[in-house]
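note to self — DONT lose this again. spent like an hour looking for the file last time. sequence + predicted structure for the chain T wanted, 209 res
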Amino acid sequence: MSQQKMLDALTAEWDDVVDRLDPETFTRLVSLIAELQDADADTAAMVTEDIASLLGGVLPVEHPVRRALAEPVSRFRRSEVDWTEVSTGLRDRLTGSAPSPRLDQLLAAESLDAQQLSAVGVDPADPDLIRLPAEGGDRFPAFQFDADGTPRALVRTVNRHLRAAEDPWGAADWWLGPNDWLGGIPARLIGRVDDAALIDAARDESAEV
């Protein structure tokens, strides 16, 4: 397998690959791509092997990524990979699926990082939490948590309706953007309107997709 060509193919075919993945597999792929950021060469190579294993099991044989996986590489010469370039390219493809007019606003919202969540006993891999890929590591919008860092049950329920694991940017945009049905920004309405109203609004949003 040529790691460089496989990652190049994944970057080029990103939209098609994502369309073929179920939410759990997509979330795993996002997590692996995040691990490439700032990883040393040996770690990045191992992470790339994990990406190859993940995609090799779900993509058809004729897919460009699978063809790159099958391409032979000389065992006498270690493949040279520009890890900074490929990890940045993949990160750009991840953020490129965000609602671009509001991308800066979403990333500027108050948030926590994975280390802060782990410090209070919260699993950063929780699929019911919005996790936004960003430069320097994933960001978790702060409205999802109580003052002590505990994930809000209401938010986790709404996030499931919004399919946050599959579309974190869309879920964040729903929470942090104006909502005509609710008459305000949902994240600011937590505790000010009935939980049922927020859940119903999210359910209505998901039904329209």
